[in-house]
Write a structure and sequence with these properties.
282 residues, alpha/beta, Aminopeptidase, 8 helices, 21% strand, globular
Amino acid sequence: MRNDLKEIVEQLAVRGFRTAGGAQWKEVMHLMQNLITRYISPPDIQSWQDEHGVEYRNFSCIFQGKSSKKIVVGAHYDSFEETPGADDNASAVAVLLCLGELIRTGKNLPFTVELVFYACEEPPFYGTEGMGSFHHAKMCDKDNTELMICLEMVGFFSDEKGSQDYPIFPLRWLYGSKANYLMVVSNIKSVKLLKRYWNVLNPSTLLYKRFISPFKSYGLDWSDHRNYWSKNIPAIMITDTSIFRNKNYHQLSDTSDTLDYDKMEVLTKDLAKLLNVLPLKL
């Protein structure tokens, strides 16, 4: 799996390639559709156009479970301006593709699972109704959606002391100064489900930590989960904390050789385990 993760990131993390609506945008969507078909199955497509007639596409694959109630796992596939976007967000796309490959042959999933690859998370779309996740979230039945899991930058790690920063200094005392973990971010409404998932993630060899807040501050809503929160759908984000750790964030230096593919493999397997073992009742 490690080689697949690396190969996917290398295909995607090309300077100036994945700018939503850019010169190569049609090629990006074509590549995404081919990758999803290769690793999972031919995807369903949700498409829309902007005022200039440019088309954008979300891709999704659905796996039927014992319950029709759905868990959404999503990651955006566009990148910021001319940046290669290896960590942001090719890392999460690679994990999502390999996760789909792991669960596609599985049986008896407790919940129906939908894997979604979003267009248009980066500026100028961020925070607008042009986000791919906005288009998907508005189609979700909030009463039939158990949880949304957002994967946002999941590939950059360091064991060096002082490699992890925080929006407020006291958090360093709580979480430590080493960038050797993934943060699981939740709002208050999603805490109950987060606790339930935590029992699956916690025994992993990959270190996970939790951050829960009633406020949309400190980067808590800086990705696609924000559009599910706005619909009162429980959602969590799994992230390497982005700008608070990775100095390559939104830079040309966000390249494939900066990522830890061994840890990305562990995350992928942890997610597959989580989706397979969760009980149907809270």
